[in-house]
Amino acid sequence: MSGVGLGAGGWSGSVLGVIQANLIGGVSSMASGTATFTVSIPNVGTTNYVIVVTIQNTTDVNPRHLHATVTAKTASSFSFQTAQTTDTANYKANYLIYKL
């Protein structure tokens, strides 16, 4: 069974090219005092993609622990909500999108 597993060179060639062609990542600032956010992304031509969002705040001494719930997707943006509002503008959304 050639090509099975992740041995030496397992992610090279055409497999790596497919992953790179379908993967988008970025960081988006989050405004203070809100719990709904929209992030613009390069147009991927579909809404058939997976989003992973993490929220960071490396500035505030006692940041809120916020979790993102994706609520909408278009080919060029996605929206998410948090259970609490941000209390400062020091929060950022890190995102990774994989187009299926």
Overview of the molecule:
The chain has one helix at about 15-20; strands at about 25-30, 35-40, 50-55, 70-75, 75-80, 90-100. By secondary structure, the protein is mainly beta. The longest helix is centred in the N-terminal third of the chain and has 9 residues, at about 15-20. The chain is elongated, with a radius of gyration of 17 Å.
| Beta-strand residue percentage | 35-45%
Q: Count structural domains.
A: 1
- Give the overall silhouette: elongated
CATH domain class = Mainly Beta
Please give the alpha-carbon distance between the first and last residues: 25 Å
Number of distinct beta strands: 6
Biggest sheet, strands in spatial order?
Answer: 1-6-3
CATH level-two architecture: Sandwich
| Total number of helices | 1
* Stretches with pLDDT under 50, minimum 5 residues: none
Radius of gyration: 17 Å
Kindly state the mean pLDDT as a whole number?
90
Class by SSE composition = mainly beta
Q: Tell me the CATH topology.
A: Immunoglobulin-like
Helix content: under 10%
Could you state the order of secondary-structure elements as H and E?
HEEEEEE
Specify the biggest β-sheet. 3 strands, antiparallel
Give me the secondary-structure topology.
Layout: H1 13-21, E1 23-29, E2 36-40, E3 49-56, E4 69-73, E5 77-81, E6 92-99
Antiparallel strand pairs: 1-6, 2-5, 3-6, 4-5
Descriptors:
Immunoglobulin-like; 100 residues; 3-stranded antiparallel beta sheet; mainly beta; 1 helix; 6 strands
Short overview:
The chain has 100 residues and is mainly beta. The protein has one helix at 13-21, and strands at 23-29, 36-40, 49-56, 69-73, 77-81, 92-99.
